[in-house]
Amino acid sequence: MPTVLLLHGAGDQAEHFIRAWESFAREKKIVLIAPQLPRDLKFEPDAPKVYRCLIEDAGKAANMDSHRLYLFGHSMGGYLAYDGALLDSEYFAAAAIHAMGIDDDYVAIIGHATRKIPIAIYMGTKDQMVSLTQVRKTEALLRKAGFPLHYQEMPEHDHNYYDLADVINRDAWHFLEGYRTP
Fold first, then answer.
1. How many domains does the chain have?
2. What is the pLDDT confidence band of residue 45, given thresholds at 50, 70 and 90?
3. Residue 45: CATH number of its domain
4. What tens digit of pLDDT does each residue of 69-90 get?
């Protein structure tokens, strides 16, 4: 079965984040993995290795398709999803990110991708936590570098993923399910 690694935002809990996906995942037969993420910068360099361990461990209990492993992150989890997608682009088939761009001082991460991994980005026009300008810059940088992108700005939407979780999840899944790793 396809698998989505769910990466929650800072201050959120994995159990809340997975609940936003549960009924949809049952309907579509998707394996969900939602780790409780630390709010510690020291975690970031190890994050892609931790993701592999989590997925391999979950694979002992679920029948997962290794060519259909996806990332979905919100806010801080979106930042970590960029890490997973761009630093381990051969492992993940695609990524979807809500409310996060790549910081100016971290754009070199784009050059680390060995594969032009497809990425969907969802951003509210009224986000009070993340700069819309920065997310637009991220979109432009990824497009210029040749990454397949699905970019959606949501008018009047703020940083609260849960307000539009059903809409975002369905659209993200529609994007993600079309990709497999070679």
1. 1
2. confident
3. 3.40.50.1820
4. 999 999 999 999 999 999 999 9
CA–CA dist 26, 81 (Å, integer): 23
**Cα–chain-centroid distance for residue 82?**
7
Residue 7 lies in a domain: yes
β-partners of residue 33 are 5
CA proximity to 75, closest of 36, 119, 143, 127: 127
DSSP 144: H
Q: Is residue 181 a part of any domain in this protein? A: no
Task: Tell me the pLDDT tens digit for each residue of 79-128.
Answer: 999 999 999 999 999 999 999 999 999 999 999 999 999 999 999 999 99
Please give the backbone phi and psi of residue 4, each rounded to the nearest 5 degrees, phi first.
-120, 125
182 within domain boundaries:
no
Range of the domain at 45: 3-176
* Residue range 148-173: mean pLDDT, rounded: 98
| Claim: this prediction has a pTM higher than 0.70 | yes
Q: Where are the extended beta strands (E) located within 1-133?
A: 3-7, 31-33, 69-74, 94-98, 119-124
